C-alpha cells in the first residue's frame, strides 16, 4: 500500500552492487529501513544517494506493509535542502554526534508525531542558527530524554540520578544554572559555559543515557565533538 510520510535520514549501508539500505525515522511509521535501488550506479541521476546523508529531511511516498522489516520507496525528495549543516565543521560535527545518538536510542515502533516534530524543529534550528549553537547538542539530549521517558525535571534530579548510579558529578553553580535553562527553556536559549564545563556536561549526559538505554554503549563521535566544540 502506498503511503505518504516525512522522514529523517539516519544512516545507510551498501546493498548489492548499486543499492543501499537506508535507515529513516518516519513521522507515520517510526524507524524504518528502505531498499533504495541504483543510487550507487554511475548512471544514477541527480546524485540521489545524497538524499540519505544523515539528518536530511525527506518527503516520501513509500510502499508500507506492517509485517515487513524492509520496505521500498516510490518517491523521495528533500523537504529542506541544507545550506550549512554539511558544510560548516562545527555543525557537521554536532550533526554526526546527534545522528549516532539517534541511531542508538530510536526504536522500531509506531510513529510519534510529537517526537518527529521535535526532531525536525531541532534540525531546522541547527541549520539556520548563525551563533549561540555551541551548546545545542547538550540541550538537545536533555530535551530528547523527555520523549524517551527519562527526562529530568531539574538539574538536581539529573545530578541525583547520576550519583545513584555511581557516576561522580559535582556541578558548580554555573553548570547547575545552565542545566536548568536547558531543561526549562526553549532550544537555542543562550547559555554561557566554559569549554571544560561543556566537556564535563557532555560526558555526564552520555553517562545519563547509558544508565537509561542499554543500547547506547560507546559513542564513537565523542572525541571529535570534544575536539571541535569542547
Features:
230 residues; alpha+beta; five-stranded mixed β-barrel; de novo design (two linked rop proteins); 2 domains; OB fold (Dihydrolipoamide Acetyltransferase, E2P); 7 helices
Structure description:
- This protein is an alpha+beta fold and 230 residues long.
- It folds into 2 domains: 2-78, OB fold (Dihydrolipoamide Acetyltransferase, E2P), CATH 2.40.50; 89-228, Recombination protein O, C-terminal domain (de novo design (two linked rop proteins)), CATH 1.20.1440.
- The chain is built from 7 helices and 5 strands, in the order βββββααααααα.
- A 5-stranded mixed β-barrel has the order 1-2-3-5-4.
- It is globular and about 55 Å long.
- The chain starts with a strand and ends with a helix.
Low-confidence stretches: none
Distance between the termini: 47 Å
Number of helices: 7
Shape: globular
Quaternary structure type:
single chain
Structural category is alpha+beta
Please give the domain count.
2
Whole-number average pLDDT? 91
Largest sheet geometry: 5 strands, mixed, barrel
Q: What is the H/E order?
A: EEEEEHHHHHHH
* CATH third-tier fold name of the largest domain: de novo design (two linked rop proteins)
- Which architecture of the largest domain would the CATH scheme give at its second level? Up-down Bundle
CATH class of the largest domain: Mainly Alpha
Strand content: 15-25%
Reading side by side through the largest sheet, how are the strands ordered?
1-2-3-5-4
Give me the CATH superfamily of the largest domain: Recombination protein O, C-terminal domain
Determine Rg (CA atoms, Å).
Answer: 18 Å
Helical content stands at: 40-55%
Number of DSSP-assigned strands: 5
